[in-house]
Specification:
The structure holds two protein chains of two kinds. By secondary structure, chain A is of the alpha/beta class. Chain A contains nine helices and ten strands. Chain A is 36% helix and 26% strand. Chain A has a six-stranded mixed sheet with strand order 6-7-8-3-9-10, sandwiched between helices. Chain A has a four-stranded antiparallel sheet with strand order 2-1-4-5, covered by helices on one side. In chain A, a hairpin with a 2-residue loop joins strand 1 and strand 2. In chain A, helix 5 runs parallel beside helix 6. Chain A is globular, with a radius of gyration of 18 Å. In chain B, the strands form three sheets. In chain B, strands 6-7-8-3-9-10 form a six-stranded mixed sheet, with helices on both faces. The two termini of chain B are 39 Å apart. In chain B, helix 4 runs antiparallel to helix 5. Chain B is globular. Chain B is of the alpha/beta class. In chain B, a hairpin with a 2-residue loop joins strand 1 and strand 2. Classes of the chains: A alpha/beta, B alpha/beta. At the A-B interface, helix 6 and helix 9 of A face helix 5, helix 6, helix 8, strand 12 and helix 10 of B.
Chain lengths: 247, 307
Amino acid sequence: MGDPVIQTENLTRKFGDFTAVDNISFDVKKGEIFGFLGANGAGKTTAIRMLTGLLTPTSGTASVSGHDVYTQAESIKKNIGYMSQKFSLYDDLTCEENIRFYGGIYGIPDKELKSKMEEVIESVGLKDVRNKLVRSLPLGWKQKLAFSIAILHNPRIVFLDEPTGGVDPVTRRQFWEKIYEVSNQGITVFVTTHYMDEAEYCDRISIMVDGRIDALGTPDALKQNYDTDSIEDVFIQLARSAERGDG
Amino acid sequence: MVIVSEVHKRFGDKKALKNITFKVETGELFGVIGPDGAGKTTLFRILNTLLIPDEGTATVLGKDVNVDYKEIRPLLGYMPGNFSLYKDLTVEENMKFFASVFGTTIEANYELVKPIYSQLEKFKNRLAGDLSGGMKQKLALSCALIHKPKLLLLDEPTTGVDAVSRKEFWDMLKILKSEGITIIVSTPYMDEANLCDRVALIQEGEIMQIDSPKAIVETFRKPLFGLKAENTYKLLKALKTYPQAHSVHPFGEYIHYTEKGESSNTEALKTYLFEQGIRELSINNIKPHIEDSFMELMQSKQEGKHG
């Protein structure tokens, strides 16, 4: 693992007098699997929107893949992949059509897209359903396809926002194998999850409380620091200290 | 309290429920555990009289869901999977609305909802749409309870909710159970199964097993091992190519592993993994988790299909 591909310093975002993200500073290295944890309302989504070039920070600095979030948001968008639990694919397009559509958006040349298409269909195991509407696929397949599409343009970083919510336990694990594989290829994976066992699969994790990052380290180091044998305990200890409440 | 017998439901050519049969006793906390698309919501919609089964029967308190739906509805409290309160009404207005629909008042049943609703009262003038995750769940539960139902149907109340709010939610269910309310709750989180009296494990419209969480784990026959090494991904790949491997699943910081056949040869495994370049290996015999059982059932179902 090499140079940092995400760097933030005192990154802050306010909405009126509410500080959603409060002076967060951290680096993520190339090829790292970085788990970004926090309770509902802790500020994760706001932070991700800043890092993906969708929201301008109030203060502080951040660069993603070498691009500044204030001035180079468009370049950031070209160098990252993004998928979320809520929206990822077009339900009323087929698997192939979704791949072609996103390929077009990312500006992948036709020839390359053709071979990429076969690669994705093969790796997700969609041969028999390639011309079926995405709507008819089980959630786990959709999420695997969405992930493959999110990295179609070989981004340096992929942001995964709760990619495995509601997915069956076997497919959830296949999804993580894919994450390992991608990270092995040098793509940085920035991932949020409510499954605490998944936090253990990350190289490092951060835990947000009330807009701050209150803990950051390898899963082992955090467990040691908080004198417990599970990340869930660490999480609960920290989240219970939240003052923001979740109203 | 609830008897479901040989229920089938299809939508077009998709079989949503296949031959579902189970009973829930009065006062029980019964879990329906399965992933998205397993058929949980369809089952709940049959129980709450909103959907008619194609075949089979379901009764709630001795009343048929097809025929006696008018009598059943006041006895039920239902919390759907999607947040379905009025977002442009305040917390208090939502409560008053649901109370009046069932011909009662907040005051009449205040004692029952107090443990939950009291946490919301400081926000009672806030619009429901402006509440965040955990608070919305508490309000939805309070609204489902306000008419003192005999049976609570909670469809994925904790999906997408963080670990702390999930814990609080289950603490509330324990309180309601102690009040004598029967609860059927669905969840995709396997760890929540352990908090139920009995659970049905459901996958692709079929119930794979019904029992207490403890008994389900006890039916896991194979010796189960937790493995850890310097590089988890390398270990995972090596295990997947080992001919004796029956199941290989990442599980937090460990990889859970079983071998084909009844017994296991860990010495041979160690030798193989060393040859594959795996270092700092530890292997421990461990107790299965309910998620191990679920995956084993899924796997044997798959193998049954193909062979």
